[in-house]
Amino acid sequence: MRKNVVVVVSTSIAVVVVGALIRKWKRWKEQQLRQTKQIIRKFARESATPLTKLWQVADDIVSSMKISLATSDESSTLNMVVSNVTSLPLGDEEGFFYGVNLHGKHLLMLCARLGGKNKPISALQREHNCIPDAVLAAPSEEITDYVATEIAKFVSGHPEIEETVPAKKKKLGFTLSYPLDEVIPFSATTFQRKNANNPVRKGMVKDLNRALTNHGMKMHVASLVDETIGGLAGGRYYNRESVAAVTLGTTTNAAYVEPAEEVASDLTQSPNSSELVISMEWGNFNSPHLPLTSYDASVDAESSNPSAEIFGKLISGMYLGEVVRHVLLKLAQETALFGSSVPPKLMTPYLLSFPDMAAMHQDTSEDREIVSEKLGEIFEIHNCCPMAREVVAEVCDIVAERGARLAGAGIVGIIKKLGRIENRKSVVTVEGGLYEDYRIFRNYLHSSVWEMLGKDLSDNVIIEHSHGGSGTGALFLAAAQTQAHRSDS
After folding, report:
1. CA-based angle 169:173:178, to the nearest 5?
2. Band (75; pLDDT cuts 50, 70, 90)
3. Which of 54, 126, 189, 200 is most buried, by CB atoms within 10 Å?
4. Strands 252-259 and 461-465
5. φ, ψ for residue 472, nearest 5 deg
6. CA 433 from chain center: how many Å?
7. Where are the transmembrane segments (predicted)?
């Protein structure tokens, strides 16, 4: 009898203890959820881009554009580099052309036929090449020679198709993409000048053309320009109302066509040109109205260029995933979102790329299976609960929405500067992986433009995907420069 009583008492105590543990666990989970929600709500509030905020940013961009164009002094957060491209396509260019795009040490060579009069690109061929590290460590003459050698081999392997224009009268389109390794002679530092027609840039073109001649090439480079200007050339080829181009990928930039009379005379490349092509370098833009958070401050402080590229750090793919990582790290540290210990890889910078961020954000499976899979692959976070997966998707949404809507405000700012919002159609060409492959980001960008302009004016700004894909802008520049050269002959 006494033994039975002891068993009953022991069982009762065990039940009480277990019950107390369960209640404690539930309270902890409720507290964890409250803390998580508080952090997310605060981040969403500070990242918000209501209509008034978007117009403040757009107006600040317009002001910065005007200030920069009025003087050669570096008095604006926008560099506004006046390109030495003096001719954009007219749409009637025909022929077989070659182009080159250099992105860091990655060399993309292309060739294609343009048919003129709104005909699509045909016979497009691409070839990618990675410049070896040993070459990059060599003097600039060897790097230039390597690039010329690869171009010569590509042209030899893809000869002109039924071409009547002599090769010696053709121009080779050459565009540059960020980031460019500074050991390459086509350094990104050459863009940090408001006047692109400088001795450094001219010297690079001269050296490259000398190397091309040494390899038997009859085609020559007319200018080295940012790839966004190539996107503008492609847009202009298909539509005369194409006035701007934007790159939204790992990095970002915007280029547009400005009436020559709006630019200070000491910045003008060609006094006979009625319009100038401007590379805005808009990643450098900054404004007190940008919705910056403590996470953005951390990303900026830990970057290779603190206090620079503030707009770029909000809208470009290089940084979107990094902002998400910082928020998730905060949640892991303060709410144990991913378990009692902080996953070590969550503390490693730049592990989360924007394609992986997009995959998690756009995961529509019932249990967010892709989110779980990506967290395991990237951060070695396994078996996270459904609530944690939803939180990850929500953080991605906040970051992507803010970036896309700010990019939309930038586009509206350009069109406003040109005075085309109310009375003219304007086409803006957009290229880059963020726009092409990140559907939700693209939708947020479009909706921000529509929201800013309203039902009556939104049809005046037409946003189009670039024609032919990344790098093809070099072909359109080659066509325009070749035709201009023939007209001058």
Report:
1. 160
2. low
3. 54
4. unpaired
5. -70, -15
6. 7
7. 6-25
Q: How many residues are listed for the chain in this entry?
A: 489
What is the per-residue burial (b if ≥16 Cβ within 10 Å, else e) of 235-255?
bbbbbeebbbbbbbbbbbbbb
How sure is the predictor about 116, in pLDDT bands with cuts at 50, 70 and 90? confident
- Give the pairing type, strands 95-103 and 242-248: unpaired
Q: How far apart are CA 330 and CA 43, in angstroms?
A: 11
Is residue 170's pLDDT more than 70? yes
Give the DSSP letter of residue 87: -
The band of 29, judged by pLDDT with boundaries at 50, 70 and 90, is: low
Q: Are 281 and 191 contacting, i.e. CB atoms less than 8 angstroms apart?
A: yes
- How many Cβ atoms are within 10 Å of 30's Cβ, its own excluded? 10
Q: In the β-sheet with 122-130, what is the strand arrangement from edge to edge?
A: 122-130, 106-114, 95-103, 171-177, 220-226
Per-residue model confidence as pLDDT tens digits over 409-452: 999 999 999 999 998 999 999 999 999 999 999 999 999 999 99
The answer to whether residues 248 and 316 touch, using CB atoms and an 8 Å cutoff, is yes
In angstroms, the Cα distances linking 449 to 77, 330, 439, 457, 460 are 23, 32, 16, 10, 10
